[in-house]
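Task: complex structure prediction.
Instruction: return structure tokens for all chains below.
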Amino acid sequence: MSYWTTAMRIVAKDLLSEARTREMTNAMLFFALLVLVLFSFSFQPASDEERRLASGVLWIAFLFAGMGVLDRSFWRERVNDCLDALRLTPASASALFVGKCVANALFLLLAAVILVPLFLVFFDLSFRGDVRAWLLVLVLGTWGLVVNGTFFAAMTTNVRSRELLLPLLLLPISVPALVAVVEATAAALLGEGAMRVWIQVLIAFDVIYTTLALLLFETVVEGT
Amino acid sequence: MSYWTTAMRIVAKDLLSEARTREMTNAMLFFALLVLVLFSFSFQPASDEERRLASGVLWIAFLFAGMGVLDRSFWRERVNDCLDALRLTPASASALFVGKCVANALFLLLAAVILVPLFLVFFDLSFRGDVRAWLLVLVLGTWGLVVNGTFFAAMTTNVRSRELLLPLLLLPISVPALVAVVEATAAALLGEGAMRVWIQVLIAFDVIYTTLALLLFETVVEGT
Amino acid sequence: MRTERALPRWWFGLVGLTAVALVLGVLHALWFAPTERTMGTVQRIFYYHVSSAWTAFVAFFINFLACVAYLKARHPKWDAVAVSAAEVGVVFGTVNLITGPIWAKPVWGIWWTWDARLTSTLVMWLLYVSYLLLRQFAAEQPSQRIWAAAFGIFAFVDVPIVYLSIRLWRTQHPGPVIAGGEQSGIDPRMFLALHVCFLAFLLLFVVLFSWRYRLERQRAELAELRARLHRLHLERSV
Amino acid sequence: MIEALDSKTLIFEDVCKTFGETVALWQVSFALGPGEIVALTGGNGAGKSTLLRVAAFLLKPTSGRVLAFGQPRPTPDVKRRIGLLGHASFLYEDLSAEENLKFYAALYALGREADDRIARVLQEVGAEDFRHRPVRTLSHGMRKRVSLARAVLSDPDLLLLDEPFSGLDVASVERTRALMVEWRRRGKALLVTTHQAELLEGLADGELVLDRGRVRSWRAPASCGSAVSPPVGERA
Amino acid sequence: MIEALDSKTLIFEDVCKTFGETVALWQVSFALGPGEIVALTGGNGAGKSTLLRVAAFLLKPTSGRVLAFGQPRPTPDVKRRIGLLGHASFLYEDLSAEENLKFYAALYALGREADDRIARVLQEVGAEDFRHRPVRTLSHGMRKRVSLARAVLSDPDLLLLDEPFSGLDVASVERTRALMVEWRRRGKALLVTTHQAELLEGLADGELVLDRGRVRSWRAPASCGSAVSPPVGERA
Ligand code: HEM
Ligand SMILES: Nc1ncnc2c1ncn2[C@@H]1O[C@H](COP(=O)(O)OP(=O)(O)OP(=O)(O)O)[C@@H](O)[C@H]1O
Ligand SMILES: Nc1ncnc2c1ncn2[C@@H]1O[C@H](COP(=O)(O)OP(=O)(O)OP(=O)(O)O)[C@@H](O)[C@H]1O
Ligand SMILES: [Mg+2]
Ligand SMILES: [Mg+2]
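Output:
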């Protein structure tokens, strides 16, 4: 069985579990609604300054959803010690890693599909900039977050205080990507400012960390 | 053993578990940092309009932390079916409920203690209005959210699609409280507008829903 | 594995040398260098501000190399190098982060702003604090060192960003004055003062680093002895 | 017959429990009195655990009636008198064995006797040595012992034990059997499931055999053999 | 002696495993060859499960050496040849028995023979009837059967079974014992823990008894009794 097939089996399994319980999808829907309701009281973006802020709000909602996804993603493997069972199989650790990343990225993109249109409609926003470039930003940003998140989540699964450790590691690492996506989104909403440079930052970020993660994953997981 | 002692044992047990793992405290610290970093790029509240907005941002961060607290709070009881064991004991369901509420409220207030100062310092905000009145708002608001959240979380623990149900029920119910806390916080930050009326709304909200929850809790849980 | 009990003589010589260099640095920074035209005396913090940043860069670079070496060789000494460098690096990073705002308040009128340089510096500092915390939290895990090494490599990605941030983006923070191209450049006496300070800080780094490294090795030795003792104890009780 | 039923600790009358399509219990009737041990046996998925959960009022039967201590509903007093050992351990992983018991003792309102009871049950199940270790570090059998301690903490009069021997080592099994004898002597009613019938031989007074949710056979405890109408399985 | 060791499936040399202060395994040495069934017994907390997890390379020993199929590290090929049944079920609750097995079959790279293998192991453990039900609705013993099916899915040559009989009904226990005989015939090495020694009587070729992490006694399988040095417990 090839590397990719293994990865895709992981993705299929996670999607199937999700289809059964719909845990994540619903949690995300909730987040989206919550953010919308809360902000609609105090926030009707009229000025450009406030549109910039909307981009921050959007990404914060997105990130919270993301943390939920990562959390649940590894919960699923911890119930009944399934993670141990995965380690028993001959499947390459990095294929498992890629599978988990892809599944998590899909869930996050799903979150985006729910969140973004709601945001645009409720806050009367529209993309004055390049929408397709922004979609690229979305995908690149999601991948960047997911690669690091999955790596560290896997690394810390068995640490006692992992709930602390995961964000401690993940947050500072992700800051460049976060800045880039927020700035790029602001640029897309306002139709001014450079998206190009932020896309380059994101590409660099993704390439560097994906490479590092693939190189180091086996070592880190087998070390136990 | 009196009603209150039972409730306090629940609180003590949750605090002890938390002291062992520090899961929630850390998750909250993380949320606080995340919100700060994300907003700091696009948000430097200068105008009063933006200060109003800061109150929304603060409460959204707070609410996310709160959802985490509620989620984990019942996870703890679901592992090894401990919730079943609680239902086996003669302790009154409503004492269990009060205990859970108090524990959750304490965790949320802890989140506030972390979040609020960071917010004030990093965004260069200060209370122009009555701080003590605002603290009252904080406590009342927290209680209002927690009472409903705990009620519905307990009610839906064994429902398959609880992840969907919980927010669906919780969100619309909480809207009055949310409006009140956001408006009261804006008033406290700006030093203008009436906090009094919002405090009254919150008191009414808390009294009504606490009474309802206490009256109905036993019925709802025993129904299974 | 047997560490020297007493500190080696060269180390004390190094401490003396460092002391001299630090005094020279103070003299240069406060005395020999000219006062800057627009900013006045506050500008003299510049020498410490920049030297500490550069020393931190050096420390983090050593940490990076040691992390790679550890993953390759799996020898605990590389891990000891890595943790020592990171810890001392965080100390110098802290000096940079403290002197920055002290300078900023009188010059910019605010303590802090979120431009690329300041943010990336803060993030770099946070990363290495996280690195140290990771070691602490995972202390009982068998793969603690491997994880730390992996994270060290992940973290180092931010260091070049800090350095390049004033070159890539428009920042509130002043652009490069050393090796910055055509329009940059400073008075030669300032240049000299800066380099004396930097040298003094580098020496200080070596002193602290070697001390910390020794401590780490001794700790490992102690742990090994403890384990052996525990074993003997168990063998008795069989 | 009415009088006899009145003195019973647990009575099932035509109890059915279905989960969607799955029939877990079908028209189950039997009764259990004080000082009696009834073995509940049957293959995997026969409905034993479901029956115990219904008896403990954790599950409501789809139809039929359950009476514990004469009550159809779990009043606080009834709850105090029922002890359930289930497949799940009912323990908080982050707390130590003793902390778990202290917590439950408070919920059972044991008050001042709590510490004595805890010390006693820990000693009875042989969990004293590891009372201070967090449950998450205990071995399978160690947890099982602590679970058992929790089930009998409130000194209940009706004990519902779901495979109490599985996972226990030989010494613990013997200790547990001795405990059962002791409990019976003290007038408690025991309903015990197990797949190791030999362990209950000479111990159980009656036996209820389930087969895919139906009562295959019901041997009532000798003292009151005719108290209950014959089970459906035999009528059919 | 060297040659004899070469042919062994699993070799433990002076293996110690400690968790902080707790000693789970202390200087454990033994060897297991193809076609041999070794019973691993001992009280609760003796270290049996820990030993199996070390043998499966899930835990690294604190000191000492473990060789499976001559390899000190879990290469993909070694992993494919080891099957572990643990206390935890290793199953995804939301997926059905069959979906679980399909998923693991993919990870074991069973390729085209996957469906046959799955059908076969499901039939062997007697889990065909509920193959399509989500694991979360299965009874305790039903899950255990599916777990066993998962453990033997890749037709491993070294089987590490942690209390395979507990929770199974009488018929399943017999079926499982028959399976063990069959596996031995096919040259597989089995290391089986249980607290029901009688179930392995006449089946096990050797026996390893642990006592608080130490080897209390080691009866090597008859065919190669002298191949391994006597265990520490006997030397002392
Ligand atoms: C407020 C927080 C500050 C932080 C975190 C900070 C951080 C740093 C760092 C990391 C460096 C060394 C990197 C390099 O050489 O490229 C640096 C250099 C420097 N800083 Fe700051 N700084 C701060 C504030 C200031 C202020 C207020 C000033 C002056 C107005 C200033 C002026 C300089 C100068 C002139 C350099 C040398 C640049 C070069 O030639 O490369 N910094 N700073
Ligand atoms: N929550 C549930 N949802 C759906 N079906 C269930 C549920 N709980 C039990 N069942 C089904 O009810 C039947 C009886 O299950 P039960 O757990 O009572 O069996 P058991 O006799 O205890 O078996 P075992 O010996 O394996 O423990 C089984 O078919 C099981 O799958
Ligand atoms: N993760 C862990 N952390 C701390 N201690 C542990 C851990 N796992 C096992 N132990 C301890 O190691 C010892 C051996 O445990 P193990 O689970 O191997 O026992 P066992 O022989 O399988 O017992 P049982 O028959 O109860 O299953 C016990 O004292 C146990 O508490
Ligand atoms: Mg059962
Ligand atoms: Mg075990």
